[in-house]
Amino acid sequence: MKPSLAKGTRDFTAKEVINRRAIINTLQKNFELFGFQPLETPSFENLSTLTGKYGEEGDRLIFKILNSGDYASKTNEQDWQAKNSQKLISQISEKALRYDLTVPFARFVAMNHGQLVFPFKRYQIQPVWRADRPQKGRFREFYQCDADVVGSESLWQEVDLVQLYLKSFSDLKIPVTIHLNNRKILSGLAQYAGITDQLIDFTVALDKLDKIGQDGVVKELLEKNISQESISKLDFLFTLSESALENVLLLKEKFEGNDIGTQGVEELEFVLMQCLDLGISSENLKFDITLARGLDYYTGAIFEVKANGVAMGSIGGGGRYDNLTEVFGVKNIPGIGISFGLDRIYLVMEELRLFTDSAENAVQYLFANYGEKESAAALKIVAQLRANGIAAELYPEAAKLKKQFAYAEKKGIPNLVFYGEEEIEAGNITVKNLLNGEQETITLSAFLELK
Predict the structure, then answer these.
(1) 373, 322: one domain
(2) 317 and 402: one domain?
(3) Residue 193: other Cβ atoms inside 10 A
(4) pLDDT tens readout for residues 251-263
(5) Across 204-330, where does the E strand assignment appear?
(6) One-character DSSP codes across 388-446
(7) pLDDT band at 338, cuts 50/70/90?
(8) How many CB atoms are closer than 10 A to CB 445?
(9) Contact 162, 317 (CB under 8 A)
(10) What is the number of domains present in the chain?
(11) At which of 319, 351, 383 does a domain end?
């Protein structure tokens, strides 16, 4: 049978693994620099833990795991004959692969809240699985890189997460803009226009402004039975200034007597002003009033990160939420979290040619194999190099030198080392640089002093 990959999964070559690891190492270093502690949860959870947390569509995309043993014998015969999949699932599957890192984190906090020190700051970098339709940039197995703070309503957390985003992307050399909004501002706008009961319709249409333009948004709002009078009240949204602070002042005026909207503006203003006071450039921050991001989930600040000069969706996002653990019976644990899109970050860095052909962990020296006696002597030198943190290896067979040369070149090993009978007797070693063709013979002691 011809081997194949499961749909929606990928193999990663050595180069891809090294580049992905470089991104993860940068994120991990910064997570810990900002006081976040690592957390890992199991790859699978009880199905009941995951079900009902992502909506009907999300439940459909959860990978269920069949119970071990003869699972079919334990099903209700009537349900089995009727092929009633909804009733059968609970009878044949008790576990499922995790869909995201947020619900497992909520489960962990709910189970351990009595032992945790709040505010509790955790980061998590692990794969998740979704039975989605695979397409470009969307896979059934992919990594999430999350950082969350729970147990604090302080807006200083928002300011800190903006800094975490900017430092991380600066270290990765990706120029970015952080788009900011606040869920309360969107609720305030709906209240201002008298369409509170159509908040979702309003924000879904507004979110498409950069794609379909003002006319397209107005058309969609009318199709959702939002009156022309309400739409006219929102006309100012289409002519907002490029200045975030000017827009904040305008909203303050519009939201006079509108408590929810005013609170949202004040929260946003605090975050913007504190970030600017820290020396963060206004070019890195954008107040994006069209930003919605999961209205049913977020309750305050909303973030989205976009790479400058690259046609790519967001490469990071997140926001503030209330009662993360309420679904598990533990109330009043507010939080805020952000996520880094590893796969999209990789694509951006590839497009901007930010990956270097680093040989930091690559083999530096390949020792030619001349036979058993010479190989035994060579391996002693290889062991010393490895003890000094230098990657080296011995070609496994005493093959023709042409074959050994070809192996070194194909693997990108820069130096081929000759340590045959003549070199052993003289106490020397010969090194050929395959990049420039130069070859030199030096004493063994001098070679071992090389870095």
Answers:
(1) no
(2) no
(3) 20
(4) 999 999 999 999 9
(5) 285-287, 301-307, 316-321
(6) TT--EEE-SS---HHHHHHHHHHHT--EEEE--HHHHHHTEEEEEETTT--EEEEEHHH
(7) very high
(8) 10
(9) no
(10) 2
(11) 351
Residue 276, classified by CB atoms within 10 Å of its CB into exposed (0-12), middle (13-18) or buried (19+), is middle
Same-domain check for residues 286 and 398? no
280 and 246: one domain?
A: yes
3-state secondary structure of 231: helix
pLDDT band at 324 (very low <50, low <70, confident <90, very high): confident
Q: Same structural domain for residues 345 and 402?
A: no
- Cα separations in angstroms, 249 against 146, 243, 302, 334: 33, 10, 19, 28
pLDDT, tens digit, 9 for 90 and up, residues 407-433:
999 998 999 999 999 999 999 999 999
In a domain, 227, yes or no: yes
Range of the domain at 199: 151-351
Same structural domain, 347 and 377: no
How far apart are alpha carbons 187 and 200 in whole angstroms? 10
Question: Do residues 243 and 192 both lie within one domain?
Answer: yes
CATH for 187: 3.30.930.10
Cβ contact 126:143 at 8 Å: yes
pTM: 0.87
Q: How many CA atoms lie within 13 A of 328 on its CB side?
A: 19
As a three-state string, the secondary structure of 302-367 is EEEEEECCCCCCCCEEEEEECCCCHHHCCCCCCEEEEEECHHHHHHHHHHCCCCCCCCCCCCCEEE
